[in-house]
Amino acid sequence: MALLTHVASHPDALVSLLCDQLAVPPDDLFLTEIVAVPTRGIERWITQRIASDLAARGVGDGIAANIEFLSPRRLVRRVLLEVPALAASVDAWEGPVLTGHLVDAIDAHLDEPWMRILARFLESPYGTGDLIGPDRLSAARKISRLFATYARRRPAMIRAWAAGENVGSDGTALADDDVWQPNLWRIIHERIGIPSLAELLPGALDPIRTGAIDPDMPGRIAVYGLTATDPLDLEVLQALSEQRDVHLYVLHPSPGLWNLTAESLAAQPHPSRPPDRDHATDVATHPLLKSWARDSSELQLVLAGHGITGSHVGAQDAAAGTVLARLQDDIRRNVEPHFASSLIEAVENGDDRSIQIHVCHGARRQAEVLRDAILHTLAADPTLEPRDVVIMTPDLATFAPLLEAAFPSDQVASSDGIPDLRLRIADRSPSATNPLVRFAATVLDIADSRLEAGAVRELVTRPVVQERFGFDADMAGEIISVIDDTRIAWGVDQTDRQRWNAGTNDERTWRRGLDRGLTGVFYPDSATRIVGDTVPLDGVEGQDAAPVGLLAQIMDRIEAVRALLGGQMAMSKWSAVIATSVRLLAAPAWGDEWQWDQLERLLEETFTTGEPDAVAEAVPEPDISLPEARLAIASWVEDRPSPLHFRTGNVTVCTLAPMRSVPYRVVALLGLDDDRFPRSSRADGDDLLIGHEIVGDHDRDAQDRQLLLDAVMAAGDQLIVTYSGRDELTNAEYPPAVPIAELEDTLRDTIGASALEKVVTVHPLQSFSADNFTSAALGIPGPWGFDPMQLEGALAMEGRAPDAGSAPAEWPVYDESEPIPLGALVGFLQHPARRFIRTRLGFSIPALGEVPDDTLPVDIDALAKWSITNRILTGLTEGYELDAVAARERATDALPPGDLGSGVLEVASETAAVLWAAAVVRGYDPRRHRGLTGSVTVGGSVVEGSVTADPTEGLLALVTPSRLRGKQRLKAFAELLFLSLLDPETSWKALLLGKRERGDGLLAVTIGPVGDSPAARRREANLALTDLADLYNEGMQAPLPMPCETCYAWQRALGKGRAGAFNAARSKWETDRFNPEAADDAYRLLFPELMSTDKLVDAGLADYSARLWGPILPLMGETQI
């Protein structure tokens, strides 16, 4: 029996060696073969290869069965558990058991002087370590991982700690700030009462070596794809090999480097002692082996340090007829890259696309470019299938949704004609694939929060919540409207506010808001009604009560969840409590009940405390808080690969590790940006191994480089690399990641700088760029893009006028025979560009939405003040008393809490009262107003509509707390003309009451009447309305540069001369502090060339101002109130 090492540079050769072993029948046919593999993706591939390889040899029928696949760590653990003393140590010194002891010890000794470093972190509200807040559990888990790492990688240090010495990994005395670790370890050692593995090994493995204990394992064991190992693992495997054959299958990229390293080690005076880390790559010649192969090189040194050697099988001979093959051959032979002139012609002609590097603008474009690159590859080779392609990325969370959007599939109908290219994303986190798992974290966040209104707004949009309570997305929008209308900010009630040191004020709490909503169900709308101290919410009676009822039900469940999750409880109880909380608020869609099983399994794994019977003493079960429970489930966002998702026949998408070294004909490396790869790793200041690393220690940067090297060596036909080389917004150039720059340097040495330009393709920002559809523009003989819709966009861009923002010279003819709605005419006069876009182009430019503010305001903005004043004014016009309306306004929580809102309410009440008094004095009586409907013919147009006015007094009135600008005057004038034609017997006039355009004063504006007699009114109104209708028709035929406020300012100031009119217009068009009309999106879209006042004047501003405002100003009078 022996420990046998097999080394190969290509996975096919290595798995062939494994099949040589499995092809020989074992002594006991009923024993299950054991093969240890590093990842689930490699497990899937090996299963398929074993089945096909053995069938080709005539062994079996093409089915790989009776093989148990374990990870190397699980294999070692299984062996340790066979020895009673080691089994007790494993159970006591790993995982939840050790964590439980640590939490208990931390609580008991936190006040001792030697614990000051840990105490400073745990007691700080802004912890400076990896964690934030009171997080004993997370700190204990971190310390548990450190102790386990020390035991595996530095057993001598642990043995010294057990002897009472405070030394570090290098054997020297620890600094005072680090002494807490050995002190805490000795306390745990005393509590557990069982020696650690570092103390027991290697002697405790003697029963395995001698055969006194015979593990229930076959006579031969295979460990495939070994890339790194702990000294402890090697000790166990060596002990196991005394009584059975243990085969180590090592994948090493370079036979040349392996052999050279072996010769170097043999020449050392102490070959069993691992050399310095720098020796790992010093003997390498190829630059990529020097930079990328540290992990595989150090593995050879670690094996040699344990007396384990092996011969390198080498790679199968292959003609280096492509750039990729030449690169791989140079790496295998460990030679400097040499200039290969024979490859240049094929690269420059586009015949050799074996290595492609694509430089893109951001992650989205990378996904689109990679899609097209793979489609080109499939189109060029009929023998290539999607199953022959793998996409690897260091940032799956970012790229997975982008890939799903970019790659059409047969599950989502593609109306744009992109060829079907199915993806299977292999290793996504549970929270990414299971809505209930994701929702569990949301539940804990809400339970530990102030219960802001925004959290509940987001909650009701979740499909799992809608499924539980039986409503749809439309109803969710109505529920959100109820939250907004009741002005809920945060906090359940007064008591909840006190928890957050926010006093006893209950304004804008959930209890007060729900009371408003539920009370509103039973009362009709009223401007003054207050029930107790509650103002019923308007508009929720009858069938409109459903959103209020659902919101009340949801909030009742949330309060129950907060009660369940509040306070500390035993760690093992959190699993059931969280599951119950999720069930109260969420349910999966029909047919997705499996989501419950996965959630409950994750909860058990996260909050289990181990098996107390397996250790000498009962395991202390820590009480943990809600913040600690939140941190405990943070690992649910980590990727967890499943073997069922690899090599399914689709294009496989995964991170770099699961499919490392698995051969694919096409290997695509996505997202190798400078800020993503290699992955950054912050040095852990608590890790005593940092700064004292030895050969074989984990190095995240070296691991990523080794993964990249494995991927390059596994590519059969093509290697495709994408990275972000340009900023999406500024087009600033980004450097490639250092490993990609090293790859480019190596290729430059192989094929020269000119040919390298054919390998590296810089893509345009937009997928509808003309370059995507121009033959040979992006490194291939034909066009690059496959998307017909983007082609249409490119053609449209090519056919557009040179000035991309200008309107066409002629618009389609507008049908002037259609009646003109009065509302449309008014809208046009107030904003001709916006009306043109809506009427002729068929869309509207949306206004920017506001992010709801869930804080308690100490002041409110101008719009909120206007709303309060307007509601009070509306109450006065409906006949209610000022005090009653103001009291209701106070009770609706529209004002800042307490005395902070008194001043606002006083000013709003005074403004509304003055406006109302001025309106009454001027004959305004809303009880006499009627809706007057009809149509009039002016010129060749018919204007039809309805106006609310007082026919008794002939008064058209607007009473508003708004500032009276040009748009209100235009509306009043157009309606006045309409009424004067509809009923010329009445001497119609318009009255506008509101704030001055500037300053704090109030203003009364009168317009009309348009004539002294019915005939004069009919004649003048017809002329004026005809001109406005003509303007409308002209403005519908082509957009008019006739901004309302700018034209008003020009015409009013024209009496001061043209210079005065220009300055007045400029103040409205360009320099207005709050809302310059030139900044309006509609004008920017239609008139991008008129953003300066000079250009606007040249476009006819004076003529438009005269036509629009010339007839109004003589009829208008203004009086200060």
Key terms:
11% strand, 1121 residues, alpha/beta, 6-stranded parallel β-sheet, 47% helix, Arc Repressor Mutant, subunit A, 6 domains, Rossmann fold, single chain, 22 strands
Brief write-up:
Helix content is 47%, strand content 11%. The protein is of the alpha/beta class and 1121 residues long.
Walk me through this protein's architecture.
This protein is of the alpha/beta class and 1121 residues long. The protein has 6 domains: 1-82 and 222-251, Rossmann fold, CATH 3.40.50.10930; 94-193 and 608-638, Arc Repressor Mutant, subunit A (Orthogonal Bundle); 336-428 and 644-682 and 691-752, 3-Layer(aba) Sandwich (Rossmann fold); 431-525 and 540-607, PCRA, domain 4; 764-798, no CATH class; 800-1121, no CATH class. Helices cover 47% and strands 11% of the residues. It is built from 46 helices and 22 strands. The strands form 5 sheets. The protein has a 7-stranded parallel beta sheet. It has a 6-stranded parallel beta sheet with strand order 3-2-4-5-1-6, sandwiched between helices. β2 (33-36), α2 (40-56) and β3 form a beta-alpha-beta unit. The longest helix is centred in the C-terminal third of the chain and has 24 residues, at 1014-1037. It is globular, with a radius of gyration of 39 Å. Mean pLDDT is 88; it is low at 125-134, 411-415, 612-617 and 801-807.
